[in-house]
Amino acid sequence: MTKPAKATIVKHIQWLFIFLITIAAHTGLAAEATHDSSLPKEDLLKRLQQGGLIIYFRHFATDRSQEDQHPVNLTNCATQRNLSEEGRSQSAAIGTVFKRHSIPVSEVISSPFCRCKESAEIAFGKYGIDTNLYFAVALEKDQREQQTSVLLKLLTSKPDSGNRIVVSHTANLREATGLWPKPEGVAYVFQPTNNNKHHLLGIIKPDQWAEF
Q: Tell me: the pLDDT tens digits for 27-38?
């Protein structure tokens, strides 16, 4: 094969690669837009005040100058990426919104990572730890499948009373639902279905809580 022919083939492959990336990007944006077709803020607030929903929080803003050590020591926050001052402020502000609008919280379930526990503690003053909410990126496939099963149950089963709060990571929600929670501190509000299929009601970014 001549050099010009090889160059042409390489160029075509490059354009194909760019085309596929573009299609994937647009598909992702379309999916995000579909999932974000949520209830109006006023209606969502009323539903939250009634209770019976599940709110999945990605932990609040973190200090990106820190990194998780591997293997991470869950009993030593110094080995992990932790909340930044912005993240602590976000947590406190959202906790205030919940109190001001009498949004009932029946249970708060957190990943064992310090950034999630601190998010839950500052915002809601309480939490229980579920090791199945461990950062999914660091786990093997069979472990992630186990996590997905547990998280789907949390997202689809009806709370006993009030609302169920789940505080975890990006990858965990992505593994279980295909939803990619961005930015840090975003909340995904689900309605229980009891059929292991999630029903998303709305998405609330950290700065949008003030609109309530």
A: 333 333 334 446
Q: Using an 8 Å Cβ cutoff, are 212 and 55 in contact?
A: no
- Among residues 108, 97, 122, which one has the least CA distance to residue 168? 108
Q: Three-class SS of residue 55?
A: strand
pLDDT above 50: residue 50? yes
Give the integer Cα–Cα distance in Å for 108 and 127. 5
Dist CA 204 CA 187 (whole Å): 5
Q: How far apart are CA 159 and CA 182, in angstroms?
A: 25
User: Cα–Cα distance between 130 and 85 in angstroms, integer?
Assistant: 25
* Inter-residue contact 173 to 56 (CB < 8 Å): yes
């109006």: which residue's tokens? 40
Q: In which order are the strands placed within the sheet that holds 128-129?
A: 128-129, 105-110, 163-168, 54-58, 187-190, 200-204
Distances (CA, A) of 159 to 84, 102, 154, 208: 31, 17, 9, 25
pTM confidence score: 0.82
Of the candidates 75, 70, 83, 185, the one whose C-alpha atom is nearest the C-alpha of residue 138 is 70
The C-alpha atoms of residue 173 and residue 189 are separated, in whole angstroms, by: 12
Cα 119 from Cα 111, distance rounded (Å): 10
